[in-house]
Request: fold
Amino acid sequence: MTAIICIALFLGGFAFPPLWLGLVGYIIYLWKTGKQRRSDVIQNHLEKMVDGRQSKANVQNLYFEAARAFAEDHGGRIFPEDQDIISCTVVIGGGNHTRSPS
Reply:
């Protein structure tokens, strides 16, 4: 959806040049809110996992780098023996939930 909006603003700018300002504004908006939007998506997936009492889940459109950045933003720490593992504590529904590797 984001790409469609950007393309529409870009192409529309040829007919109505002030739309290019809208494109610049939209790109700035995406850049400034990226961290919060990522956090909201991951938090939503975590809430579904807690509600479903799941300890593991595969999320198709979530890259490791985004999950790692989310964990680091929430006080996560990387395990020195394995750089692909990170643990953090997240508050969901008023309770702390920590998942460390087993």
